[in-house]
Amino acid sequence: MNDPLEKLEEEHRVIEKVIGALKHMVEAMKRDVNPPVEDLRKSVDFLRTFADKCHHSKEEEVLFRVLEERGVPRSGGPIGVMLQEHEQGRSLIKEMLRAVEAIEKGDEHGYIVFSEKASSYIELLEDHISKEDNVLYPIGRNILGKKEMENLSEGFEKIEVEKVGTGVHEKYYRIAEELGVKYK
Q1: What is the pLDDT of residues 123-149, one digit of tens each?
Q2: Closest to 128 in 3D by CA, of 72, 120, 25
Q3: pLDDT digits (tens, 9 = 90+) for 43-67
Q4: Of 2, 9, 1, 12, residue with least CA distance to 137
Q5: Which among 68, 61, 70, 66 is positioned nearest to 157, based on CA atoms?
Q6: Which of 50, 100, 119, 137 lies in the 20 to 30 Å Cα band around 150?
Q7: Is the predicted pLDDT of residue 1 greater than 70, yes or no?
Q8: Smallest Cα–Cα separation from 41: which of 91, 88, 128, 110?
């Protein structure tokens, strides 16, 4: 059987490459070695487009709905927690983007703000990914049947094509690889 949740887990591994690169950038900033602002912008773009618009949309618009239909509660349950954390992540990404824009305008304080917000985002996302990989996705595997899994696959593909755009997914895989190699 095709397991679309494996696709989400694979995307987690790609997101973790950028999180790892961000960790190295933050550590460098703590030593007053500021990475190129282009790398900060590239990281934020990756998080906004790949992690949020692509990956989180698949969860929110497809997976969570199917899980709810099968009885997994939204409020007070794992879906509600995931949604809340997605919103926290979006807020931190916006603040990181504002910091990048400040840096581009010559405000060196932007590096401090970026470092703080990126640190919070890293902590949030590492914990979030662990919950999904170890709690939410196993729940899905236990309660969803073959037809529902096929519907998930179709829904995920639809998001990649209609919401994100053809070829965009691959572009962000390359960016994650590039940042992962540059910041080891």
Answers
A1: 999 999 999 999 999 999 999 999 999
A2: 120
A3: 999 999 999 999 999 999 999 999 9
A4: 9
A5: 61
A6: 50
A7: no
A8: 110
Q: Compute the chain's Rg from CA coordinates.
A: 17
**Global confidence as pTM:** 0.95
38 Cβ partners below 8 Å, 6+ apart?
A: none
Cβ neighbours for 77, distance < 8 A, ≥ 6 positions apart: none
In 3D space, the residue among 52, 64, 126, 41 whose CA is nearest the CA of residue 91 turns out to be 52
Tell the CATH topology of 4-182: Four Helix Bundle (Hemerythrin (Met), subunit A) (1.20.120)
147/145 Cα distance (integer angstroms): 6
What's the token pair of residue 92?
Answer: 């931190």
Cβ distance 54 to 48 under 8 Å? no
Report phi then psi at 144, rounded to 5.
-95, 135
- Report H helices in the chain: 4-30, 37-46, 57-58, 64-69, 78-104, 109-131, 137-143, 146-158, 168-182
Distance of alpha carbon 106 from alpha carbon 154, whole angstroms:
46
